[in-house]
Amino acid sequence: MAFSNTYAPEHLIIHLENAAKVIPLVDNAVSAFVGPYSPKSFGDYASGTSHTLPTRGYARMYSDVNTNGFLKHITSQECTADGMNNLAEIEGLDAHRNAVAVRVVIRVADIRK
């Protein structure tokens, strides 16, 4: 799997006993064909696998073209004041620490009103 993840194939055929157990080890492949009954031709004719795949090792950075590429998604995160303060301190970046300090001070001031 180390070689495969470095090579980053567009098609990865995992023809092993207990092949499904290997899937968590796959970091870089576009399309994995798992087990003895899933040859690459299965993707061509039956499973609906995309044929627009990044080649030449680009699976390290990109996925296939699929409908998810046309969907909008929003990430969100939420942190507590203590968590934000601790992270800024651990990170060791002064500008980030100052941005956090201002927010913590403002929040404390809001609470005191």
Number of helices: 4
Main β sheet profile: 2 strands, parallel
Distance between the termini: 58 Å
Q: In order across it, which strands form the biggest sheet?
A: 1-2
Helix content: 25-40%
Category by helix and strand content: mainly alpha
Model description:
The chain is mainly alpha-helical and about 110 residues long. It has 4 helices and 2 strands, in the order αββααα. It has helices spanning about 1-5, 40-45, 80-90, 95-110, and strands spanning about 10-15, 30-35.
Summarize it.
By secondary structure, the protein is mainly α. 37% of the residues lie in helices and 7% in strands. The protein has helices at 2-7, 40-45, 81-91, 94-112, and strands at 11-14, 31-34.
Main attributes?
113 residues; mainly alpha
Layout of helices and strands:
Elements: H1 2-7, E1 11-14, E2 31-34, H2 40-45, H3 81-91, H4 94-112
Parallel strand pairs: 1-2
Helix pairs in contact: 3-4
